[in-house]
Design a protein that fits this description.
single chain; mainly alpha; elongated
Length: 126
Amino acid sequence: PDYCNEIIDWFQSHYIPQEFEIKKPPIFPTIERFATNLGVCKDTLYEWGKIHPDFSVALKKAHEIQQAIWQEGSMRGLFPPAFTIFLGKNVFGWKDKQDITASVESQADLSISVNFVDSERSDNQD
């Protein structure tokens, strides 16, 4: 569709400049708002992405721009922490990382018994 460049331009226009003064959180660009601006629903945009490879690429780029705005804005404290965490986990697929180390120390002897069964041999044959 004609909207390939428009979606990228729209998301990039919401980039938060370095010298941004924090008075209130900036407007965060979303696919839903872009769809509303076009007079369609977000499902229509995703359907266009399935039909038109160029628009699919544009949607992916828009999502990457959105994620960059989220990351950089979050690191600069422009968004509330709950918003930052929620968006990271539920929209961008981020998750908490846990490092778990386990060790087992035992002096006990371990023995394993294995019985092999001949699959060619029937139970009636000895």
